[in-house]
Design brief:
2 copies of one chain form a homodimer. The first copy, chain A, is built from 14 helices and 7 strands. Chain A is α/β, with parallel strands linked by helices.
């Protein structure tokens, strides 16, 4: 594909053209260097119109019912007059394949809704690359008028942090099961949540869900989760029956009511943007270093010497840095 | 000071000469470029003799009684035939000043003990610099025969992570007070602990300490803290009366009994060393980039454009990287 003209594409995005939105995201996700300049021009054009949304990150262990929840939640939010975009960060999507079909069939009713836009995780080998493209897709969706952005973690481990670092509110979905299910999540992730929902508050599990919620509430209070402005609420819901879904959206509204006037969201976004810039700079520098022919030969040896304790990490780092930086004129 | 001969200094360190130990650490902590080569030579010489210790990181909110605990714990451990070194990571020590005197008077009995070595936090402006020097001081202490290394966090915020990243076992000291006290700690830090002790299990607070311990135990279990091999124990102690101090040391022994045969400690150390090398490389590259005259002029503008949402972080990062990397021949 040749890069489309970014300005006319941008105008169509702003006009609400869904095909243009999809093409714009494809452009932003493109790994081809000749697309990058057009993508940058497009983002620059759209940026003044981006940002007017609430960005909600959602994570939870496999089996918690994330897709069912996002579908029920998204439909509720649309019913309240909003436009909802669902994005995902899944560094494994290339390997598992077929995630476009997967996402669409997972959320059938939502995907048919004109006020919803569902975009699977961009393919990519590194979490950094996937996260970067999801962040930029988020800006495009905002410019297209989507005022509720849901970013879902699909992979496990690091992707939770990446999603928390690009959203205003981080929502953790839990099962009524308790402690053992959390072993699969990154350590410390529970304490990063802004809102916790125990799903499957229905049928035989209703009592367990209520009990789990009150236990999590006590635990999070004990661990000092949240901030002086915002005590992390723990509620229950049933994505299957719709119970508690409206209340979950009300809690998001309460979060905005607290965090927007206090400047909490604006501060978080400014910090996220700065941290993102520096993380891109660091990763770009490390890639350049690894691509240096001298370093490419030397790094594997340094790495194993350091891991085996034969060389101090600081000495190995100085060695690598000197070899790289003396290459500069 | 001119740099001492690193090999003869190293020999004296290995022979157990305390003045040599102090001088060796001073050399390793020196920020003077002409000391760096001698420090590297010294570390290279000592490295084969380092590593034979248990490295214990200790954190807790101000007022929890860290110094009193470390003194009681250190004296107990020495009584069991060990040699104990106490180091600290406190990025604020330069500003507050006088931390040498502070540390020594805080732990008077321990500091008089021939089998103890107490070293205050190196002065330094950045956490990274302070942490690097503490890591290297730890290696020197190990080579000098100290087989229990305690690394204390003094500052708040990031220093907890730095200490967790250089130790085998991360011990969190808590007060009987509960949730609110934890607001001062970095989010997620409770879930990083390998061992939790509720201090002040004495006098009027004894009942509250026991209750707090059982609440923390339930909360950590619920949050899935620890691993399949190691469920994080929560115990109580009184640094003032000595109650529970022996049991705390026994828990450290249990941790070793589980984590040494399983290779858990060796794996953690290898990962820490690798991560440390890469973090030094990244920071060194960023320092070089910031020192570039073109970038030094351009970065403040990029930073504020990114924070204000006028430029995407990725575009700003590419801009900075291009300016820097094209400077390479």
């Amino acid at each position: 594909m040749t890069a489309p003209d970014p300005i006319s594409l941008g105008k169509s995005v702003l006009a609400g053209d869904r095909r243009a939105l999809a093409r714009a995201i494809t452009l932003v996700e493109s790994a081809r260097p000749d697309h990058r300049a057009a993508a940058d021009r497009l983002l620059e054009y759209l940026l003044p119109e981006a940002g007017r949304s609430i960005r909600i990150g959602i994570t939870g262990v496999p089996g918690v019912g994330k897709s069912t929840f996002i579908e029920a939640f998204g439909l509720h939010v649309i019913g309240r007059g909003h436009k909802v975009a669902v994005l995902a960060v899944d560094p494994s999507s290339r390997r598992s394949g077929g995630s476009i079909l997967g996402d669409k069939t997972r959320m059938e009713d939502l995907s048919r809704c004109p006020d919803a836009f569902i975009r699977p995780s961009p393919a990519g080998e590194t979490l950094g690359g996937v996260a970067r493209r999801t962040r930029e897709a988020m800006l495009v969706c905002e410019a297209a008028g989507f005022d509720v952005i849901i970013v879902e973690t699909v992979g496990v481990g690091q992707s939770e942090t990446a999603v928390a670092d690009m959203t205003d509110l981080f929502l953790l979905l839990l099962l009524p099961g308790g402690g053992d299910e959390l072993q699969g999540l990154k350590r410390g992730i529970v304490e990063m949540a802004d809102l916790v929902l125990v799903n499957k508050d229905d049928g035989d599990l209703a009592a367990a869900a209520q009990r789990a919620a009150s236990e999590y509430r006590a635990a999070l209070h004990l661990l000092g989760a949240g901030s002086a402005d915002w005590r992390v609420p723990v509620a229950t819901c049933s994505a299957a029956t719709g119970r508690g879904i409206g209340e979950a959206w009300d809690l998001v509204g309460k979060f905005r009511d607290v965090m927007e006037p206090s400047g909490g969201i604006a501060t978080r976004r400014a910090e996220q943007a700065r941290a993102w810039m520096w993380s891109e700079i660091r990763e770009g520098l490390v890639m350049a270093l690894k691509a240096d022919p001298v370093l490419a030969r030397r790094l594997p040896g340094l790495d194993s010497d350091v891991a085996a304790g034969r060389v101090t990490p600081a000495a190995a780092a100085r060695d690598a840095l000197e070899a790289f930086l003396t290459g500069r004129s």
